[in-house]
Batch of 3 targets.
Target 1
Amino acid sequence: MARGSRFAIALTVTVALTGTLVTIAETAASAPAGAALPGTTMPLQEFVNNGLNGRTWNAYDQTTTSAGPDIAGRPSPIAYGPTVHVYARANNGDLMEFINDGFGGRPWNAYDLTEITGGPTIAADPDAAFFGAIVHVYAEASNGDLIEFVNDGAGGRLWNSYDLTQIAGGPALGGDATPLISGTTDQVFARSSSGDLVEYTNDGVGGHLWNAYDLTQLAASVQVAGDPNSVEIGSVDQVFAEATGGDLVEFTNGGAGSQVWTASDLTAATKGPTVTGRPSPVVASGVIDVFARASTGILTEFSANGSGGDLWNSYGLTTSSGPTVAGDPSAITVGSTIHVYAEATGGDLTEFYNAGSGQAFTTSDVSADAGGPGIGGSPGALLYGASSIHVYAGGPPPASPPTGVGLYGLSPGAQTSQAIEDNWPIIGDTGALGTQSAPYTGFNLGADLATGQAIEASGKRVTWLSFWTVSGPVSSNSDGSACYTSACYYSAAYGAGQYVATTIDSYASSGLGLKPDWVILDPEGFPDDHSGLDSGPGSSNANWSSFLTGWANGLASIDSGLHPAFYSDQYEYNTFDLASIQLPAFVAIAFPGPTNILENPSNNIAGFIAFGATCPAGSEEQTLANPPWAGSYNTLQFAGGQYCGP
Amino acid sequence: MGGALGGHRRAGTTIERARTGLGLGILTAVVALAAGCSSPAANHSATTTVRGKAPPRATTTTTTTTTVPPTTVPTVQGTSVQIHITGSTATVDFASSSVSGSLSPEPGSFSQGGIVYTFTVSGVQYSGSPSTTTATGGLITSVVVSSGSGGATIAVTLLSPQSHATYGLGHNEVGVSFS
């Protein structure tokens, strides 16, 4: 290995915990405390239990080492001979491969597989596995298609990409894909954009190498609300996911390649908690253990250990002496022991491990032990060799801007300055209206710069939300007519993102030293029905995904330091699977009496944008400070140009 | 080269499960294209666009808004619409409570020798008295918002004749600019 040998060392344990059964809790409608919002890009951190520097764990910033990009989301590591390959989504949406190959005299190098393959950008976290000696990496493309990146050398090119959704005629995805490869059988599980659990597999049925199956239908079971994860025991496939409603469900088939699927509700069977996010299953000593974050933040183990006469039992691994967790766990086995890694509430990478099947779990603060950074997303863990553990995650997260309830839609100038003086912690503005031709935004600039100038002049740290209305591709065809394909939506938003990033970067020439905390696409431009996304030929999950991903990538292509986000109403959030978008969401509600119709809110909701507020605003502030509207970055918009202090 | 399958190894034990009574579904394979090494998915190329004209940035316009007191019922309060004029650009913000759907400015027309431009905005219910904002120092001298069939009617009076109007659109906001 390029950075010298890494040797096994006994792990430090600090806190002894006992397993306890936990109860069901209500699902929150916003990001869990301590978790960075989806889409936040950070350096790739590597934590290794190599025992160097007099401590068990050490941390390395492999973005810096490789001169590569920051990443978003969960990395996926694999051991490739003597090297480690880590796959992750770059800040511009490209699939990156980080390798400690020592090439060019640099211990780690970063390779852009989207660029190398001429493939698409990706909109969710990738997951890698071996197919023989070939690496297969699966990810959801910006338009929702399942993409396979393979180092197959086909066509004289080492890496190639294949659109399995197109090849199999399968559904678009709504999140992370996870492969399960056994021999020559390659199965990829994911949540479809409609919420069903789906499987893509190379079974050759019907003369087609790849086919797609709807496991929710095959099992006559529930839809899923989160990303699945899988494991194989014997020849039986086990797929676990958060069901709509939060119960942990297990889908299992009749054997490898079998399309006879059944499903079980493990939350109900164990009287355990509801869960959020992507579970992590392992097989240790012949027993399946599934780790998931309970809705309360408690890391929970669902174990098929048969204890007490029940096949499945659940245990809360977090007690009063241990941390709750903020993201998805990643579990591995080392011999008969299980090691689970997760971002603790507060941001430290934390290890939960037991001494063997049935034993109590203990915890260790890996970030603290490594003297390293906190993390801002879910980790990916890898056992390298017999006992060397490598854990990869994005981190440290950027400092969070002030949270609370602020204002949106003020008149630029004196009113905005007054709001800042009055200590509203968040100010939102309209950067521009949508236009009928490219770049599909930019009408009536000025308010955004004025907001930034008012914030800077105040000397206060105020959260700055910059909303930009972007029209759909109403004149994107060569003859000037509308084009409502996903590619056109992507391109329209990409160009808008470039235009907006260029505009924001130009503020410095006006003497402004700040940039918005989030740059938010508001799809309420031309044509009618919200940039054509709510009805008519442009209305589809794929177009929403493409539009929002194009926005993020367009911004990043000009200024990777900007933070993209999007705006929607509750209907759109429900109807177009916007809970699966890996960007912060600002969701519209209206006073008086905002009604919660959100069906499956995910942790991508950064805040609620409330219209129709009136002065005095105390009661409305209180409404936004409590569930179900307790977002981190909420704003009120006063009706009719009113203004009042908090 | 090569490596272990990690978490995808076959384990030696198959666990028998008690199921929760969920039946078997019908196999619904969705098939289409023959498999193999297809060409890669379309790469999203960046589209860099250049704006034809810089947006108006004049800030010297002064504006005055008056709303005719309602004389009949029902009316929408004057504060349900806000009009802003900056040089050659005007924006009209409708109160969310008066927005009945997705706003959409319809094609308008010039009259009085290009001095007045009138257009309708659909997706909004404006049944109150006309709201007028005047300005000096810029191309637009006044904007009047009034009730109209199918929405609100906006009449923009200009200092000098114009022949081309462009629209902007946001959540509850419509803009018009002249060149």
Note: Residues 58 and 122 of chain B are 29 Å apart (CA to CA).
Target 2
Amino acid sequence: MGEAKGSKAGHGTFIENGKIYSERLGILNKREEYINVIPLKGRYDPIEGDFVIGIVEEASASSWLVDINAPYPALLHVNEVSWDVEFGETEKFLKHGDSIMAKILQVDVAKKIQITLKDRNLYKIRGGHIIYVEPSKVPRIIGKKGSMIALLKKYTRCRIFVGQNGRIWIDGDEEGIEKVLQTIKIIEDESLSFGLTNRIEELLKKDAKDVR
Amino acid sequence: MKPKSDIKLIDEHGKRLDGRKLHDLRKIKIEAGVLHRAEGSCYLEWGGNKVLAAVYGPREAVPKHTQNPLRAIVNARYNMAAFSVEDRKRPGPDRRSREISKVISEALEKVILTDKFPRASIDVNIEVLDAEAGTRCAGLTAAGVALADAGIPLKDIPVACAAGKIEGHVVLDLGKEEDNFGDADLPVAISPRTDEILLMQMDGHLTLKEFDEALDLAIKGCHVVSDIQKKAIMSKYESVLEAE
């Protein structure tokens, strides 16, 4: 828990007696006059507009409860899906254990979360693998403007969807999936080193040659 | 009161039974992140005490009526293993462990930014594997490290240490015989950044002057332990920080 003076307090910090303190274990990050702390660990904190992967926990008459790895389950109302669902027939569409890609519609003050499936490319997941990484590492897996994820897709020919909540869905042939898993492990381990995207590209390129 | 014994707790050179001086701590070893199921965890050895702490959450509090719509609740559970003491300890919560669970919960509640997680609960399990006086301090210190390891927003990492009186001398960190045959025991938990007191209990009798002396001594001890805590957390994340 570091200490800092001056500047403005950003994410992950609090002010006491005119000093800025870090509220959790993380890495100091200065951006303009703000001081932020990038957490190393911790639960996913839902933000409106995030794309996430959820697992259905419960189906009720007109909604589903979905686990999105946040401290609270998220509510998916029938009005927020693209199917025509009769009252009480929610189970026909999504049952306990089904996985979905969703967008966070709303988070209110009481941290009640609502999610939606009404956006581009959001649907129920069929097939493929879901793996889990620390939510704080997700930005590195996506890369700057999606550069890292684009690389992965290009060299492994897998379909990949990265949820902000740390769940990643991968679908493709076995070899491709294996390679994605290995690469993600490397990204996770070296998530803070410099020029990672370039190194990963080289690695993938080399492997790609071996295959052909 | 306590049974008198003919053991001499302090010898003529001012040394205690285990060779420590009056103001010395026992040996402390802390390791963070030892359990993979828990969000955060810590294993701590403090003299003969061996304590394991695990943090789960924040997660939705169950049963629902225990939820607080404005902040998270903190559930600490202190438990002693049946094999942790000389005689077998009857397993399960008893009057003593329930009291310790309550005071530790309240101490931790003061440092956790609970308003960030309305309706949630943060569960802290403290398991005493081996006991040798001062387990509540060891447990709370371990819980502090486990909370930081779990990435839970904290105002400070809480730390605890005891002081006491044996044979008329105010001493730091009582050992087993000193606790059993000494005159007083004063466990104190603080938030080391501000020196705010999070927990203070007393067993036995101290004069006002002795009390002040013991409190100062305990707070000093807390700061020493706090440094060990921070080192343990840093060493776990060293590789990550070096890469930065």
Note: Residues 174-189 of chain A form the longest helix (16 residues).
Target 3
Amino acid sequence: MARPRQHRSGYFIFLIPGLILSTAVVVVPLAMTVATSFTRWQGVGAPTWIGVDNYVQLARDPSFWASFLHIVLLIVAMAIIPTLIGLVLATVLVEYVATAFGTRTASVFRAGFYLPQVLPVAIAGIVWSWILHPGYGALNSLLHAMGLSSLTRNWLGDPHDALYSVMAVMVWVQIGYPVVVFMAGLQRIDPELYEAAGLDGATWRQRFSHITVHLLRPDIYVVLVTTTIAALKVFGQIFVLTRGGPGNATLVPSYFAYKNFFEKANVGYGSAISTVLTAIILGLTVVFLRLQYGGERARTG
Amino acid sequence: MRAAKPIAGARRRGWLRHAVLIGLAILLALTLAPFLVVALNAVKTPSDYAEHGPIALPRALDLASIVEFWHRVDFTRKLLNSFVVSAAVAVLGVALSAMNAYALGIGKLRGRSWFLLFFLAANLIPQEALVYPLYYLSKLVHLYDSLTVLIIVFTVIQGAFGTYLLSSVYDHFPRELIDAAEVDGAGRWRILLRIVVPLSWQTLSVLFAFFFIWTWNEFFLPLVFLISNDHQTVSVALGVLQGQRFMDATTTSASALIGILPAILFFLLFQRTLIRGVTAGALK
């Protein structure tokens, strides 16, 4: 702030293309979606203003509540489970494998676990819908070959199993991300801390919870935030694996909105679903940013 | 007695070492098994598959399913479409991020934290909240069913993320370099292109790799915007074909394999950059 004023002049022009483009691609469409959510509209002709009717209907719609319940379970599968497994894997790889077998071995494992992350979501969906196919799929064939025929299922076609199958696929997709982030975070930790703890007689479990988890808190936080938001937006895997079915067994808000927009031509209703989802994501972001800002202030202050 | 203890401990550790390694190897094998099983079945004949099932090794290497599927969906075209969109978004997105971040991080514009919040929100808003108006507006301006509309939309959405990340990098940009260039009479553009961009090349290349792969992997908006066969990207073409009548077991695994291969290629090409990126800014 002590810098002379003229130093800051002439920069605004660099922001203009970004602001114009964001307005055209994000601000205006979002405003249109919010406005449309108060109308009944088939996508052609003039929309009819109906006030909050769409929202009233949403509150009574069991599909809508089901889609949010499924999102809660997908947050478990995409954020919580991968974070827990990732913590263990990263710790074992950095503290054990890297020291006992060399960092190269640890990097090979890291790359392998990360590979599903670079796979396009639609392709991951194709791979798994083929593996989980009840008739010719590899999983059921493997179970038969192992003499475990009683365990075979119609993994994606049975309403009782479909969501759990999708959750398992999501764990597979997500696991590499926390592993990579936590391995990087662990390299920040001073090995002397562990040595000191070891000399003091701390067990592996004590070191894990008191040193590793404690010092990785910022990384765990970032991973949980980004994967939770990713779970709220999930679409591609659901589209390819189950199309929200059977029935509504794997319906998620994004696919529910898509169906209303492009299959049922209920644009107003679809807009209301999207508006609710947007409000939830932005609300969570504000909470996360506040927590982070508060945490930083507490640390530095 | 005292000497015996560490030896027993070391032996136990030696045993444990390998148990841990074996356990990890099993987990890794499980993670990679889907790739392997897809590859094995993509090179089987349909009759081999019918007879021996999906978990047997192929009796002979048969590329007919892959070749036939490739021609049927005109896969070369799909690869080209995906490549054009991804490369354009990566280049334009990095350029847009650099310009925005130059103004916010180095220019320290008034209200910069509000602008940053704006760009963060622009990146986080779910695409389904934008899709219908974008669909409607793109029809109005005759950009519907074109790669152009996707390039514009993804450049903005990913550029918004890049702006957020790069601004925090440019916050710490050595001020004396900028001041020195100003004393030498260099203008704002010259400083951006000759000093800021070359010195932040590493971060920019991380953004480039991520933008490219993210765009390649996009499914929702391409699904809505690209309806004609000639314009579809790899993900859309393969995604909408699932469940079609001609998609038998070997054809499905062939389609999965040719969808996986480009991803693995990019992974090998960008691996270091990707890991560095995830590591540096916890990019996602």
Note: Chain B touches chain A through 90 residues (CB under 8 Å).
